[in-house]
């Protein structure tokens, strides 16, 4: 029983095949396409959508060429969306969450009453949130829209014709009421958007349709939700980090916390794939390395190797909004870290790693301050593949670090397909299957 996991990251799109009947889970990445947003002549920052969808199709063709598929699942980054008309056609390429169009987000949040917005939606206030993007969206295009579709679900729409929403992804928008699990239409109206365009929310596991004869199952459309499905989180007192472009740091819990203390600490309550919530904070992560690497004609892996050879480097605030999308990331990092203009690449890279690790530790301290035990830290995603990154996180956090799968998102995607197909009875059984490839912890 083979599932194809389409995993759309904000810097690369991957299509992987996972044999759900294998004794030890393995991820066979059959296609990878590196991408990023581009500045258009009108000044907007958008995704190259047609190329993205074409590469998904290429990947699925390659997956099918390896043998029959039982299912396809699609996950991707959150907060971004597309608008389709009454014929199901995309009105324009989706904007990137790094677009400067949301510069006025604070005034929008103030007009909505920040406390009430958090009490209802439980989402960390950031300029990238969908609610602030919609507030800045072109009014004429919104008037022509029949449906708003988040990007992973938009790919599913391209493959099957179905335009729906999935709760783990809807929960990142700042428009989902965490108490009712439904859209907060009054907030939509308050930002000048007709709530009728919001998609119906469907449960994980539903068959959306077929693509070339293969069922397309709705999995947790938010890639972070998929990553945490595949995280080694069964132990009490264990927090998590999904270490990629963003480092997502937090804990799993049954109920949302939308208290004033949680709001002041700026934590998100993200809806889990199969229930519950991930109580977390977003920390700027490998985005800094990736952009520096691109400017220097290197790779993020090259910079991690260099960083491991460098002496100690200064720590800076990776959450500085000036680092969201600077014209020259390397210059911006040097300025933030108070490094000179001639600082070597190795020192800049070391400063980034130390600063991200310190930011992770700060989030863990915030969790402890809120009376949550943090005795271990499970790390999944690209960062889990670097012993240097794991060592620096363990050093700053002061707790053992348990490395998980580098391709946790694809594994979580496939695990949810396996539940939909009846291969696994529940999440606990699926996680037991995944644990067969577990590694030893890294100590502080």
> What amount of the residues lies in strands?
15-25%
> Could you tell me how far the N terminus lies from the C terminus, measured between alpha carbons in angstroms?
40 Å
Radius of gyration (Å): 21 Å
Number of domains: 2
Can you name the CATH architecture of the largest domain?
A: 2-Layer Sandwich
Name the helicity range.
Answer: 25-40%
* CATH secondary-structure class of the largest domain: Alpha Beta
**What summary fits the major beta sheet?**
6 strands, mixed
Shape: globular
Number of strands: 20
Mean pLDDT: 94
Low-confidence stretches: none
Tally of individual helices:
17
Strand order of the largest sheet: 3-2-1-6-14-13
Structural class: alpha/beta
Assign the CATH topology of the largest domain.
Nucleotidyltransferase, domain 5
CATH superfamily of the largest domain: ATPase, nucleotide binding domain
Features of the shown structure:
6-stranded mixed β-sheet; 444 residues; 20 strands; single chain; 36% helix; Nucleotidyltransferase, domain 5; alpha/beta; 20% strand; 2 domains
Structure description:
- The protein is of the alpha/beta class and 444 residues long.
- It has 2 domains: 2-223, Nucleotidyltransferase, domain 5 (2-Layer Sandwich); 231-404, Nucleotidyltransferase, domain 5 (2-Layer Sandwich).
- The chain contains 17 helices and 20 strands.
- It has a 6-stranded mixed beta sheet with strand order 3-2-1-6-14-13, sandwiched between helices. The chain has a 6-stranded mixed beta sheet with strand order 17-18-16-15-19-20, with helices on both faces.
- The chain is globular.
- It starts with a strand and ends in a 10-residue tail after the last helix.
- The model has no long low-confidence stretch (mean pLDDT 94).
